[in-house]
Records
---
Amino acid sequence: NAGVTQTPKFRVLKTGQSMTLLCAQDMNHEYMYWYRQDPGMGLRLIHYSVGEGTTAKGEVPDGYNVSRLKKQNFLLGLESAAPSQTSVYFCASSWAGQDRAFFGQGTRLTVV
Amino acid sequence: AQSVTQPDIHITVSEGASLELRCNYSYGATPYLFWYVQSPGQGLQLLLKYFSGDTLVQGIKGFEAEFKRSQSSFNLRKPSVHWSDAAEYFCAVGAKDSSYKLIFGSGTRLLVRP
């Protein structure tokens, strides 16, 4: 029972490079979320999805794009990475909005 | 839009002492409320949640939280802290509208003195 799996776990990018973070869940959850965690700022919501084919902006969406083409996958893209995007990224999913969220183990991204 | 404030960045308590972590929220109605814990290098684990009904909720590891509508608060408590409770604790608010956005506070880091 894998739960929520994030790929990759670590990545170093050069400024201006692009990349995609993959989140996969095997619990048939409708809701999926991408957060970034920075010291002293907690988890800030980047984008989220309330079902396959839907996405919505969170608190800090600028510089990121997302897609939810399949229910089990939620992709986070950085088109042109900036040092300010150095962070730990967490994906989460839940069956319903009022249900508990299950978190992945995080992706540590460094942009140099 | 909902928001969450955790006013204490760090709290240090002695092992065996009681603990209270503060959480205040802003939302137009009674939201869904959660407390999560994060151990170093790990993801987040749910401690407890409040949706409706009894305002005192029990969670795992001996934690409880009390929802106080008049104070817009959802403080986390534990009567006797163990060294293994040292971690970062996050309060979260879930919207009850169709967005179901889940917003987190900035966290409180708990240190436990032996």
---
Amino acid sequence: DAEITQSPRHKITETGRQVTLACHQTWNHNNMFWYRQDLGHGLRLIHYSYGVHDTNKGEVSDGYSVSRSNTEDLPLTLESAASSQTSVYFCASSDRTGGVYEQYFGPGTRLTVT
Amino acid sequence: QKEVEQNSGPLSVPEGAIASLNCTYSDRGSQSFFWYRQYSGKSPELIMFIYSNGDKEDGRFTAQLNKASQYVSLLIRDSQPSDSATYLCAAESGAGSYQLTFGKGTKLSVIP
């Protein structure tokens, strides 16, 4: 079955370290998204991509970067991890189904920055 | 700024009752709306979407859309304890956009 996976599922890192979170989908979807979810803030969009070599900033992109070298993967990099980036990170992908673009989420990565 | 507003709850209903979850949105250009269910510690799961005014039914779930009032709702009939979760409302971020703007979610508790 087609799916979307994220790795690692849990990560503890130190302030200042570079961290990369992986996202892989086998639906062949063009659109991919990264969100963070924090208590009191809900889901907030970090970066998104509409196809290979396309990347765009979302609402809370400072300190994060993405690259899209193929359809299946959109890795999220924290250039220099900060305690404010402790959060749960979700990757999602979408394509047109029944007239709308339904987004499907990966299982999430819980990141703790100490 | 495009916003989607939901009552954070918690909303408590007895088992077998109808749960009513509500959502308002600020962007009149939004055409499509989505309801997600999120169990504690899990990722959001798409329940259903709606893009036409009126009602859309899928099993025990009914989504309702009123574009004039910028209002979306989700009714859950015959609520079960397994329906206890946080429900997220999302709006397409402008007509034809692939992005979604999410509300902060309403926590539903179904009491046996």
